[in-house]
Structure of MBL fold metallo-hydrolase:
Amino acid sequence: MQIIHHGAKTGVTGSCHELRLGQYGVLIDCGLFQGDETKQSLDIDFPISHIQALLLTHCHIDHIGRIPWLLAAGFRGPIYTTEATAALLPLMLDDGLKIQLNLNRQQRASFINLVNSQLRPVPFDAHAPITFPDGSQIEARFQPAGHILGSAYIEFTLPDNSNVVFSGDLGPCNTPLLVDPVSPVQADTLVIESTYGQRNHESVADRGRRLKGIITQSLQDGGAILIPAFSVGRTQELLFDLETIISQVSPLMPSNGEEDIDWQRLPVILDSPLAAEITDQYELFQRLWSKEAKERVIGGRHPLSFKQCITIESHQEHLALVNRLKASGEPAIVVAASGMCTGGRIMNYLEALLPDKRTDIIMIGYQARGTLGNQLAQERGKVQINQRQVSVKASVHTMSGYSAHADQSDLLKFVANINHGPSKIHIVHGEYAAQKALAKALQAIRPESEIVLAAEQ
Ligand SMILES: [Zn+2]
């Protein structure tokens, strides 16, 4: 058995790993490189004729975005993933094909049909056997990873009964919308992500309080609140928290000491057709929600589709809203993609509203090196948008509590709770410093484990 990393070796994008057994192999994820890592070619630069299946941990673009290139290289094998990821995958791929490859509607539809013909949705906890041409068989099992809807870590049982676990992206504990990940009982070999291998987040309880504080302050100052968010995962966590805040605050908050702002009328604008479609899928898969979230629904609340949440569909509507907010400075919360400000509708808002000191930007996700989001988080005075220099007068707030990723303490807990193993740990999907920090912390709790860093291979 061999594990080969074809991506996410020295950074957090382009996740793609191969589990090789003799002459055959399976791929785990096939993601796009983003930010500085886009300098790497997207063409599949490794042999695939022996690859018998692709398994997807979840549908973030850095785990699925290179599927078009994989199929272009000739891969026609089955694609195994959870039912919710299978439902989200066409939406995410369609968006990627539009943005990255500029394909028209018909070209996109025929590609999505091809992907659908290869898709094999598997329920959580079920065993999916994968048989190789020589008759040998491995088994895959998807378990909740708590990262985004449908996200899973994958347990493989090999012909010799040993097992290998690929963590995919693990979610933090105690997020209100999804269930927490539960560690596998056994993992002889573990491949684990390390996005936040060197850091701990502010707590989930604190994030709601801080968000409320920033919004309250901003309402008093006027201006829009822009929140760049990944369409899948962060957007829904954020909507969930906004609904919580709005349901708790007193209807009237003072603004400039003059007029009162009615929180119940404060528009929460979801300016992303993709995020809206994905939010619909979150509604359809309520069975995967946490107990707390389900209880709200039973109590008659609508955590993801509350009254003042407005969805912007057309591009004209979007442009009109950007201009209106720029001209009026009226209060509004705008949630738009992309999460790292590398494209999408958030760009027009940033270009129009960054020079306005009343604007507040709340950064809630991981910002990869080389992205505009990363530059904003560093509080640069000037940035480039659409080939124009834009001065940044807006206040930029960074909140780590919305990360979809486990922090160092969550990652350590995930490994500590494995009853048997791991004798070998591969650390992937993190900056080199994060991989090293996680390795050091893991070695302390698992002194018997051999630890390999993907960045050093
Ligand atoms: Zn992810």
Notes: The pocket of zinc ion is lined by residues 58, 60, 63, 147, 169 (CB under 6 Å). Residues 204-402 form a domain with the Rossmann fold fold (CATH 3.40.50.10890). The mean pLDDT is 91.
